[in-house]
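Can you give me the bound-state structure? Components:
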Amino acid sequence: MKKSKETIKYAFKASIPIMAGYIVLGMGFGVLMESKGYGWWWSLLMSLTVYAGSMQYVAIDLLAGGATLISAALMTLLVNIRHIFYGITMLEGYKDTGAKKPYLICALTDETFSLVCSPNLPKGVERKAYYLFVSLFNHFYWVAGSVLGGIIGNVFTFNTAGVDFAMTALFVVIFVEQWESTKQHIPALTGVLCSLVMLLIFGPSDFLIPAMITITAALLLERKILEGGASE
Amino acid sequence: MIDGMHSFLLIAVVSLVTMGIRFLPFVVFRKKTPKWILYMGKVLPFAIMGMLVVYTLKNVTPLKGNHGIPELLGVLFVVLLHKWKHNTLLSIVGGTILYMLLIQVVF
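Here's the bound-state model for the whole set.
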């Protein structure tokens, strides 16, 4: 029992930075939904069942614009296809997680991924339980934020322009932490370079898929160098 | 006026596609995972975080408007603050406040 308490505590601590981001971004989502006439229960439904930050923002436009179901499906595919990478990364980690596994997979967002992809867990923290609690905490923050946003959305307004920079800041922080955790910077540089080049070629709305393809290809080409160094 | 039924179906579609994508790798590589996929699992997190940083900054226009100066300053500030204090929450909140001030007050 002591062990599980320690695990919950550790998972909560790890999730605090996400709490800030998720409650702010979740509230932003709830406020926007409210402004389009979708009350907090719509935000609750979507945050529970979709649980994908940037896609939910896109979905507000789809809802408000009365998009067809097919175009909604295609849009979701484009925006969320990057999640395939998270699954591939977590194949090993989420193996043998038993009954937790379906939920862990459902809750594998960008932010949750950032906490489970390379955890340096101290002794006394149970890995699989850590995955579960981090996922649950994050999901809760996101739902709570969006419901709160939906409720207070029409009560008061403040100038929130730029608040979405929290997302950028979060990814930059994780990038810095990952950078400091290893001497091998080729994968990180590959990600940045391929994305930048594809952004220049294809523009902001179409670069994500070319970026993912070139990143995959480049990493596979670099396999000899990278694995040679890693296996010592 | 909200079309409740259409909205409900649309949310269901978005949810199903999202969950389908999340489950896909686990279903495809259920039995045995090829070695190169395991290798990708090791190196991808680093590359993806780089991609996500670029992704969140994709609408920056270096040649127009404010030339992406708020974004550049914001990112630099986050990096320096984080290198200095290594406090994730502080770096995110600090960077976001600076950015909001920059675009609301300065630019």
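A couple of observations. Chain A touches chain B through 94 residues (CB under 8 Å). Residues 2-35 of chain A form the longest helix (34 residues).
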